[in-house]
Amino acid sequence: MLQIGTDRVLQGLITQIFLRKKDNQLPKYAIHKILFKLQLELPNDNSVKKRIPFYWYNHGPFSEVIENNITWLKENDILKEYPIQEEKTLLGLEKEIKLPETTDFKEANEILNSISYHVDFYHISSFVDEIYRKYAPCAFMPLFKLDFLKAMEEYVKRVSSGQQTLNLFIDDYSNLDKLESILYDCESELPLVSTFKPFNDSFSSFVTSTGRVFDYIREEGEDTLFSGKEVLSIAEVTWLTFAKGIRILDIGHDKYYNNKLDVWKNQYKQSLISYYNDVDNFNSKALAEIKQDRLPFCTPTERSKNILSSVVEGYLN
Q1: What distance in Å separates the CA atoms of residue 112 and residue 36, rounded to the nearest whole number?
Q2: CA gap 220, 290 in Å, rounded
Q3: What value does the mean pLDDT take over residues 129-143?
Q4: Distance from first CA to last CA of the chain, Å, rounded?
Q5: In angstroms, what CA-CA distances link 59 with 190, 241, 260?
Q6: Are 89 and 21 within 8 A, CB to CB?
Q7: pLDDT tens digits for 9-58?
Q8: Which stretch of DSSP H or E encloses residue 65?
């Protein structure tokens, strides 16, 4: 059973988001982002502010408290899921609920209405992008997530569907020099704290190999799926690893989640070890693809893995 006080407030706010437009349907992540913006705009003396704690994760600001209340609203047939495509769903409001009558809730609801008024619910991704660019804990996040990763995703999608060749992508869709420049910008914006030292080292190695792949494309004009799919694959792993680390820092989570730090650190440690190996494999494939003379790639031994694990442990303690 959910706690009545906090959860009545959150359930009321969640349902109010759907009343902005008739028959409004939203992806679940949109609720998190809208309420994140509400938390930022609420005055400190409003008790609702502390009831919606967030941490930054795979898809931006996320609240376990909000997630629990969305689940409760679905289980009680207040919200309904509507399937759309590729296992994705939208949420819609089935029935309204009684709202708290406190002064703090009324103030929060007025601010929420103002936020919702300026959100284009039919193009919610632009609002999410704005959240990243304005409020992400560090500049690396919008640079990598929005400017680099999105461009690579679009390229692979177009090539895989046969809509676009690599050369057309370079010439017409996105400038390869710009993508490489964004990667270097990302590298310069990495968090300079001990927690991220192992990640930063692996990321720099990834950037170097990606530069080699891009040089190969420029010189040879080869239309190989490796050039896109392999870069995209390691870029996605890069992001997921980074996300496990950023929530550990004070700037990445509200104090409400401090009791999760030990678990998060352990998950990040394991992710770092996997990322190190993934980058090594990517480097090896990149060198093989562009046919440069290099020393044979060696799969990390158990001893090297143990050494890496000890190094990572040192940075996280």
Answers
A1: 10
A2: 9
A3: 97
A4: 36
A5: 18, 12, 19
A6: no
A7: 999 999 999 987 777 899 999 999 999 999 999 999 999 999 999 999 99
A8: helix 64-75
**Structure tokens that stand for 178 in this block:** 């710009």
Give the DSSP letter of residue 137: S
Q: Tell me which DSSP letter residue 224 carries.
A: -
Residue 56: in which H helix or E strand, if any?
Answer: strand 55-57
Pick from 288, 269, 277: which is nearest to 224 by CA?
288
Angle at 293 between CA 292 and CA 297, to 5 degrees: 100
Q: What residues pair up with 89 in beta bridges, in sequence order?
A: 83
| CA pair distance 261, 107, nearest whole angstrom | 33
What one-letter code names the amino acid at 164? Answer: Q
Report pTM: 0.84
Residues 128, 60 contacting (CB under 8 angstroms): yes
Q: Which two tokens stand for residue 146?
A: 């929005």
Phi, psi of 127 (to 5 degrees): -70, -40
DSSP letter at 18 equals: T
Judge whether 53 and 10 are in contact, CB under 8 Å: no
What is the DSSP code string of 161-214? TTS--HHHIIIII--HHHHHHHHHHHHHTS--SGGGHHHHHHHHHHHHHHHHHH
- Please say if the pLDDT value at position 294 is more than 50: no
Distances from the Cα of 181 to the Cαs of 69, 134, 207, in angstroms?
A: 42, 21, 10
Query: Could you report the per-residue pLDDT of 85-128, keeping only the tens digit for each?
Result: 877 899 999 999 999 999 999 999 999 999 999 998 888 999 99
The pLDDT assigned to 155 comes to: 75
Neighbours of 177 (CB within 10 A): 11
Higher pLDDT, 315 or 40: 40
Residue 225 has pLDDT above 60, yes or no: no
Q: How far is CA 257 from the centre of its chain?
A: 18
Q: Which residues, including other chains, have CB under 8 Å from residue 297's CB and lie 6 or more apart?
A: 280, 283, 284, 287
